Write the structure tokens for this entry.
Amino acid sequence: MIRFLFRFLGLWMIAGAFVFFVYDGTKSIADRMLYFTKVSEFWAWVHQDSLLALQPAIERHFLLRLATLQDRRRRDETCKSAAWDLREYRD
């Protein structure tokens, strides 16, 4: 059952990518410039209210996790540099 769900979602994602490829391709050929449509621009064009409703939830959850990952990376880098400094003093 779960495999079917993932395949179904994957199929829809590939179909959406193809639609955007054709849309951006025809726009690029007509204007002789390279265009890329952002998902947020398309979503705002289709249904602005749902995008505005989802945006605070994404900022709250995703950006919080991103900030914690960056803090962990900084702590790891400072620990590595401190360990390197200790090795220099031992020799």
